[in-house]
């Protein structure tokens, strides 16, 4: 689960053409997520991938998890580590709310404090980056 969490944070940062910037709560660039799912850190080094089938891979293309079409996030063993609801609520595996991804890209913790920004990034991808990969 720690690897999946680390990857989600990494997913929050991605790069160049077609990339959306992932920012910390203080508006510092944490990374980039490209439209093809490539995740880069703030130095534009590739740290992972989110594939079109929902697979989450590390930089060596090893599968570390999956985002299912219903918003369930699983680790590489298929165990559920969290959920992203259509309204942007992010829950852990026990269905406790751990945060929110707002329509405008603002990422909040469970107390509604802003922890980052992911404007233009799919809610599931932002959730993986912030809450499960700790970008």
Brief summary of the model shown:
This protein is mainly beta and 135 residues long. It has helices at residues 2-11, 123-132, and strands at residues 19-24, 29-34, 38-41, 46-50, 55-58, 63-67, 72-75, 80-84, 89-92, 97-101, 106-109, 114-117.
Notable features of this structure?
135 residues; twelve-stranded antiparallel β-barrel; 12 strands; disordered N terminus; mainly beta
What does this protein look like?
The chain is globular, with a radius of gyration of 13 Å. Helix 1 crosses helix 2. It has helices at 2-11, 123-132; strands at 19-24, 29-34, 38-41, 46-50, 55-58, 63-67, 72-75, 80-84, 89-92, 97-101, 106-109, 114-117. The protein is mainly β and 135 residues long. Strands 1-2-3-4-5-6-7-8-9-10-11-12 form a 12-stranded antiparallel β-barrel. A hairpin with a 4-residue loop joins strand 6 (63-67) and strand 7 (72-75).
Tally of DSSP helical segments: 2
**SSE topology string:** HEEEEEEEEEEEEH
In angstroms, what separates the terminal alpha carbons? Answer: 15 Å
What composes the largest sheet?
Answer: 12 strands, antiparallel, barrel
Which sequence of strands runs across the widest sheet? 1-2-3-4-5-6-7-8-9-10-11-12
Helix content: 10-25%
Structural class: mainly beta
Record field, number of beta strands: 12
Oligomer kind: single chain
Low-confidence stretches: 1-17
Give the DSSP E fraction (strand runs of 2 or more residues): 35-45%
The Cα radius of gyration reads 13 Å
Outline type = globular
What is the residue-mean pLDDT, rounded to a whole number? Answer: 85
């Amino acid at each position: 689960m720690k690897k999946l969490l680390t990857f989600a944070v990494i997913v929050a940062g991605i790069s160049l053409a077609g990339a959306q910037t992932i920012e910390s709560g203080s508006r510092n660039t944490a990374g980039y997520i490209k439209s093809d799912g490539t995740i880069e850190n703030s130095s534009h080094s590739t740290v992972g991938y989110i594939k079109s089938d929902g697979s989450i891979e590390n930089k060596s293309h090893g599968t570390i998890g999956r985002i299912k079409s219903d918003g369930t996030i699983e680790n590489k063993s298929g165990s559920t580590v969290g959920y992203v609801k259509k309204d942007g609520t992010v829950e852990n595996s026990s269905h406790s709310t751990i945060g929110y991804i707002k329509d405008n890209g603002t990422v909040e913790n469970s107390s509604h404090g802003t922890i980052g920004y992911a404007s233009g990034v799919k809610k599931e991808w932002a959730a993986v980056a912030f809450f499960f990969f700790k970008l």
